[in-house]
Structures are given as structure tokens and as C-alpha cells.
Structure to design on (765 residues):
């Protein structure tokens, strides 16, 4: 059995990669994908602790997160498509109308 | 307790046929009041200009009053009832009626004369431009007088008293276009006011006796009767109350307004200035008789001296008058003084005095209405422009003759019985000097009465007009009052059981006594006066036959003892020219200065407050807005619109919180 600290470290790395992607990427699709990375990092954590504690709760919660993430990607991609249609671009730096 | 205290000494019948009218005496007061309102609002739109309301209401009131008197004819007792009015602190005021024999008699007198005058005015005031208004005030006056009569407490009495005063003022000045008339109205109002002010203080003194808890006359009298109040206090209160009588009943030295009040229409003179309002002063003494009896003796002495001066002085003045109404006015003064003098003699005098008030009201109203009828015919008040009217106006002549003989005191007419009773009482109370005054005044009264009749109805007509008998609306009341003049005297005739004394008495009934020699003496005096009048004025002369023999005394009388002159010089002019100017200066300089100064100070304070408001309060409000605006302006650049920067903030915040929670907490 894989030891828990290794799994947690993996999860933390995955989450950090996601944070980096959300904050640093200019492409909106890449941002969405980075969000997926963060969600999956959480899922890994949930499943790992479920295995450790021999409880089903974490696994069920992970399934919910996957379902919600799928819905979120659907909405997010729709927004990106609309954005592209109006602005001919999906660069998030250019989407800054809502300011002072 | 006033006349009520007769309980125990006199057995009253519990129920009588008239009890309903006594218990509902307030209706009698309300009727003329309602009619006054009706005439005021509907009068000019009613056929006959509204007089019909007044006549109906007063007629009904008369019937009710007769019903009320019947209760006492049958031997019923007094009745008192009241409703709450309002309360000031401990002082509890009520609206109430107190009906005893005295009240019942007064109700009949007032409503009877008022009814006669209401009917008579139909003819006398016909075509007058303020006919409707005249009837309004006439009805209102009747209501006020009835209020005074039935009132069971002092404040209600005062209200009626003052309303009468204002009605008198309005009616004297009815033809105000003529300066003398409005002057006379003002004179009457102000002169009576001089008496009314002490009267009001007298009332306050009486209320003070009860510790300011009630104004009920019975309770006040009861409180006084306990004897815990110092006699001096009661004496002063009685004297103050007598001030009201002196003003309203025109006794010396406030008598000057009554002769001038003859400027009003003659029916008004008959109702207000002969039969009712001037009698209210006498009624007041009777209603508050307890106060006068409990006061020191000198108070009643003062009362009798004032009355004696008035009786004799006014009778003498009546001799020299040319204006027929002024003759009657001075006669009224003199006869009112008879009543007041009678009351000053004590319990016996109360019955006698009020009997004279009762008879006098009828025959003096009759005389005034006759005089009005004459004036209506010849368009002049002056007897020098009359004469020989006997042929032209027989009804007026005969009724006036009856009234005159009653005034002179000829048996069996009204005046004889009442004057005789006063003489008897004066004799019984050993008031010899008053007896002499009564007798001498009676002689003079007979004399000027005869002079008036001779100058008016005998000889040849001297005037320019075409005299004619008055219409039926005027002669009707004359005949009715003449009948009353013949009849009412018998109510007090000792030979006929003197029923009047069983209605009006103080504490216990006194049998009226008939003293033959006194009756003989008064009749002889009256006949002497009449004979002298007849002899002197049988032939008309250009100058009055008395003028030459009387010499300077004639001038003294013509100038009314110079009392009016004295008042003008000693009071009116100094007040008007000196005090008024001083008061005016005080008002203009001092009072206005205070008021203006207050305004200036107020402006200063207001400006200070305005500065504070604009600077400090507004500054705080605006400053708060300014600070918020500037802060927002500085911070708004954080809102860059770049979502990723917001996310950076979010993560930094989460990490910071994590550090805080892990390391610190």
C-alpha cells in the first residue's frame, strides 16, 4: 500500500500546479484546465483519507466533486465560446471591462 | 338655607298639579333661547320677519310659568335640580334650576311682560330696518333674564346677568345711527359695569367661603349660616354684591345711565329698563338675602340710605322732565329704590319688596307701553308737544290712566297694595325715617304722575302731527296689562288672604297686616299729590307753573343735581384726557419697547443658531460624505478588472489566514 504522506505530497504538488495555472495562464481554456487540476488534487486527498479511515464518505464526496466539475466545465466552456465569438480572443487579460 | 330653609316650619304638599312645570323649569329658559337662534337664522326668510318665533316661544314660556306658579298656589315646596357643567380643580360647577315661590313669581312677571312687549313690538317696530335683529335680542334678553331667575348657582347667575347687560346695550343702541343713542348705550354699559365688577368680586368672596368647592347658592348660604366666617368678611361681601344691585337697578350714585337708556325703542324701555332687568338687582338681594342678614347691621343701613336717597331724589327729578319717557325712567328709579329699601328692612320687607316688584313690573310696563303708543302717534317724546290726546286715542288714555293711578297708589289698583305693605313693614320695624321717605315719595309720585297725564292727555293738542289710535297689536297688550294691573294687587291684599306672602317669604310666612290708618294716610297722600297735579296743570301754560316759585331748585333739578356734569368733569375727562394719554405713552414706549426688544434679542439668538447650524452641523454632515468620497476615489484602482489578480489576492489571503490559524491560534 502506498504510504499516505506520499499521496498527500502528490496531491499538494498537483494543487500547486493548478494554482499556478489559474494565476499565470492567459488562455482561458488553460485556466479552466488548471481548475480541473485543483479539483482532482482535492479528490486525491478525499480518496486517500477514505482509504486510511476505512470510510465511504470520502469516496462518495469525490464522486460528487467529479460530477460538479463536469457541470462546471460545461458552463465554463460555454462562456469561453461566447467570449471568443464577441472578442475574437480568449486571452483573460483582455477581459477586464468590470473595473473602476 | 335661603328661602329653602322654610322646610320644617312650613308643611309643603308633596305633589301638586303644577309639579311637572316646576321640575321642568329649564324649558322655560330654553324656549326664548331657541327662539332667538331661530329668529337669527331663519327670521328674515319667515313671513312676518321672524317675530312669530319669539311670540310663540315666550307665550309658551308664559304658560309654563303659570303652571310652575300653580305648584306654589297649591302649597308645593321648592325644587332644585342640576346637571354637571365642568370642574376646575376643587371647584365643581353645575347648571341648575332652583324654583321656589320667589322664582315662580319672577318667571311669571318676566314672561308676561316679555310676551306683552313681543306682541306690542309688532306694531311699534313695524317697518324698522332691523326688525328681525330687534326680535333676536329681545328673545335673547328674555332667556338671559330667566337664566338669572332660575339659577341655583352664582356663576350661572353671573352669566345670565352679563348677557342681560349686553342685550340692554344692544337694544339701547338699536338706532345707533343717531350719536346720542350709541352714546347712551355705551354710558349704560360702562356705568353698570362699575357696579358689576364689585359684584363679581362679591361672588368670588362667597365662593371663597366654601373653600372654592361649589358655587351653589344654597350651599354658600348654609356655609355662611354656620357662623364660622367673620362678620366683617360677610359685610364686605354683601356690600360688594350690593354694588351689582346699584349698577343694574340704577341706584344712586350709579343711576345716571337709566334716564339716558330711554334712547332705546320704547318696548325695550318697558321690558328691560322698567320691568325686568333693573329688577334683577332687587332679585339678587332677595336671592342672596342670607348674606345680607348675616352681615353687620350697618350694611343694611347703607342699603336703606342709598335706597332712600334714590327714592326721593329720583321722584323729585321726575317732576321737571318734559320727555315722557324720562318721567317714567325717574319714576322707575324711585320705585326700584322702594323695593331695595323694603328689602333692607329684613324678613318682613322681603315679601313686601318683592310684592312691589311684582306689581310695579306690570303697571310700569303698562305705562311705558302707553307712552310708546303716544310717541308712536305724535312722533315726539316731549310732553310740551302733546296734550289733548284723550280724544284721539281713548284706549291708550284709559289704560294709561289705570297705570298712573296704580303708580300713584290708589285703591284697589296694584300699586296701592304693595306700597301700603311697604309702609306697614317700615312701621312695624320702627324705621320711622324710612316710613316718612316712603310717604313723601308717594306724594311726589302721585304729583308727577298726574302732571304727566294732564300734560299728555288733557288740554289742547300742541304738536304738528296727526295723532291716531295705535293698531290692535299695540292696544291689545295695553289692555292685557291694564287688566293685570287691576288684578295682581289683590294677590297681596290682606283682606283677600294675601296669597302672595305665601309664595314669597324668608324662612317663615308672615301674615300680611292691614293697618287702616296707614292705608288712610297713604291714600290721603296720593290724593293730595294727584289734586296738586290736577290744579297746577289743569290749564296749559307756556312755562311750567313750578318754575318761578322753585327758583334755583328748578335749575338744580333740570341739571339732574349736576351729577352727570360731575362725572363728566371728575371722572370721564380726567380719565380720557390724562390717564388715557399716560396709559397710551406707557403702552407705546414701555410695553412696545419690551415687545420690540424681545424681537431683537430673538433675532440675534436666531442668527447665532443659524451660523452654528450652517457651520458645525452641515460641516459634519458634508465632511462625512467628503471623507467617504475621497477614500473611495483612492481605493478604486484596486478594482482592475483582471480576475486573475483577484484570485492572487484570494490565495494570498487564504495562506495568510492559514498561517494565522496554525501559528497564532
Amino acid at each position: 500500500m502506498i504510504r499516505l504522506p506520499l499521496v498527500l505530497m502528490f496531491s499538494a504538488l498537483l494543487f500547486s500546479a493548478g494554482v499556478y495555472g489559474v494565476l499565470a495562464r492567459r488562455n482561458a481554456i488553460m485556466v479552466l484546465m488548471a481548475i480541473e487540476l485543483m479539483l482532482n488534487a482535492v479528490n486525491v486527498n478525499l480518496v486517500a483519507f477514505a482509504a486510511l479511515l476505512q470510510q465511504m464518505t470520502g469516496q462518495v464526496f469525490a464522486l460528487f466533486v467529479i460530477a460538479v466539475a463536469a457541470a462546471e466545465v460545461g458552463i465554463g466552456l460555454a462562456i469561453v465560446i461566447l467570449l471568443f465569438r464577441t472578442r475574437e480572443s480568449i486571452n483573460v487579460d483582455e477581459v477586464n471591462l468590470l473595473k473602476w | 338655607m335661603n328661602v329653602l330653609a322654610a322646610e320644617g316650619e312650613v308643611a309643603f304638599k308633596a305633589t301638586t298639579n303644577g309639579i311637572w312645570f316646576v321640575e321642568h323649569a329649564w324649558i322655560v329658559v330654553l324656549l326664548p333661547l331657541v327662539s332667538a337662534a331661530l329668529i337669527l337664522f331663519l327670521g328674515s326668510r319667515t313671513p312676518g320677519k321672524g317675530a312669530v318665533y319669539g311670540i310663540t316661544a315666550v307665550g309658551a314660556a308664559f304658560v309654563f310659568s303659570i303652571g310652575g306658579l300653580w305648584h306654589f298656589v297649591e302649597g308645593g315646596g321648592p325644587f332644585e335640580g342640576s346637571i354637571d357643567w365642568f370642574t376646575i380643580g376643587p371647584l365643581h360647577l353645575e347648571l341648575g334650576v332652583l324654583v321656589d315661590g320667589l322664582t315662580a313669581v319672577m318667571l311669571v312677571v318676566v314672561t308676561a311682560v316679555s310676551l306683552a312687549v313681543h306682541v306690542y313690538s309688532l306694531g311699534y317696530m313695524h317697518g324698522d330696518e332691523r326688525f328681525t335683529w330687534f326680535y333676536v335680542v329681545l328673545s335673547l334678553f328674555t332667556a338671559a333674564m330667566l337664566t338669572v331667575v332660575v339659577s341655583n348657582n352664582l356663576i350661572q347667575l353671573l352669566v345670565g346677568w352679563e348677557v342681560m347687560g349686553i342685550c340692554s346695550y344692544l337694544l339701547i343702541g338699536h338706532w345707533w345711527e343717531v350719536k346720542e343713542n350709541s352714546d347712551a348705550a355705551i354710558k349704560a354699559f360702562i356705568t353698570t359695569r362699575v357696579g358689576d365688577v364689585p359684584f363679581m368680586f362679591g361672588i368670588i368672596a362667597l365662593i371663597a367661603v366654601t373653600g372654592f368647592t361649589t358655587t351653589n347658592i344654597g350651599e354658600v348660604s348654609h356655609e355662611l349660616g354656620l357662623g364660622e366666617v367673620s362678620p366683617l368678611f360677610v359685610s364686605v361681601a354683601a356690600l360688594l354684591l350690593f354694588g351689582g344691585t346699584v349698577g343694574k337697578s340704577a341706584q344712586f350714585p350709579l343711576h345716571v345711565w337709566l334716564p339716558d337708556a330711554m334712547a332705546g325703542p320704547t318696548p325695550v324701555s318697558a321690558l328691560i329698563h322698567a320691568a325686568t332687568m333693573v329688577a334683577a338687582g332687587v332679585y339678587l338681594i332677595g336671592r342672596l338675602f342670607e348674606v345680607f342678614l348675616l352681615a353687620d347691621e350697618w350694611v343694611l343701613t347703607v342699603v336703606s340710605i342709598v335706597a332712600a336717597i334714590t327714592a326721593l331724589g329720583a321722584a323729585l327729578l321726575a317732576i321737571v322732565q318734559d320727555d315722557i319717557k324720562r318721567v317714567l325712567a325717574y319714576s322707575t328709579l324711585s320705585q326700584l329704590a322702594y323695593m331695595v329699601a323694603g328689602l333692607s328692612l329684613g324678613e318682613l320687607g322681603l315679601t313686601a319688596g318683592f310684592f312691589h316688584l311684582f306689581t310695579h313690573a306690570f303697571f310700569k310696563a303698562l305705562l311705558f307701553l302707553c307712552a310708546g303708543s303716544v310717541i308712536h302717534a305724535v312722533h315726539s317724546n316731549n310732553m310740551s308737544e302733546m296734550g289733548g290726546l284723550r280724544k284721539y286715542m281713548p284706549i291708550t288714555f284709559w289704560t294709561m290712566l289705570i297705570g298712573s293711578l296704580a303708580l300713584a297708589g290708589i285703591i284697589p289698583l296694584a300699586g296701592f297694595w304693595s306700597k301700603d305693605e311697604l309702609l306697614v313693614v317700615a312701621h312695624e320695624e320702627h324705621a320711622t325715617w324710612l316710613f316718612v321717605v316712603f310717604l313723601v315719595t308717594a306724594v311726589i309720585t302721585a304729583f308727577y304722575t298726574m302732571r304727566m297725564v294732564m300734560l299728555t292727555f288733557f288740554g289742547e293738542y300742541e304738536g304738528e302731527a296727526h295723532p291716531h289710535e295705535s293698531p290692535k297689536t299695540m292696544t291689545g297688550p295695553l289692555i292685557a296689562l291694564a287688566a293685570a294691573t287691576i288684578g295682581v294687587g289683590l294677590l297681596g291684599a290682606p283682606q283677600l288672604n294675601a296669597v302672595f306672602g305665601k309664595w314669597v317669604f324668608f324662612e317663615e310666612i308672615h301674615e300680611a297686616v292691614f293697618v287702616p290708618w296707614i292705608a288712610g294716610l297713604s291714600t290721603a297722600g296720593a290724593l293730595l299729590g294727584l289734586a296738586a297735579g290736577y290744579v297746577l296743570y289743569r290749564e296749559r301754560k307756556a312755562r311750567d307753573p313750578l318754575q318761578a316759585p322753585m327758583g334755583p331748585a328748578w335749575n338744580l333739578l333740570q341739571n339732574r343735581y349736576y351729577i352727570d356734569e360731575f362725572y363728566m368733569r371728575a371722572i370721564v375727562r380726567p380719565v380720557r384726557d390724562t390717564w388715557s394719554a399716560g396709559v397710551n405713552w406707557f403702552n407705546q414706549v414701555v410695553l412696545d419697547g419690551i415687545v420690540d426688544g424681545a424681537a431683537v434679542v430673538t433675532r440675534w439668538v436666531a442668527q447665532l443658531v443659524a451660523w452654528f447650524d450652517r457651520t458645525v452641523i452641515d460641516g459634519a454632515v458634508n465632511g462625512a460624505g467628503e471623507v467617504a468620497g475621497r477614500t473611495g476615489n483612492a481605493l478604486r484602482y484596486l478594482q482592475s478588472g483582471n480576475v486573475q489578480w483577484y484570485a492572487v489576492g484570494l490565495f494570498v489571503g487564504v495562506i495568510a489566514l492559514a498561517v494565522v490559524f496554525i501559528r497564532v491560534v
About this structure: The domain at 4-93 of chain A is CATH 1.10.287.3510 (Helix Hairpins). The two ends of chain A are 54 Å apart (CA to CA).
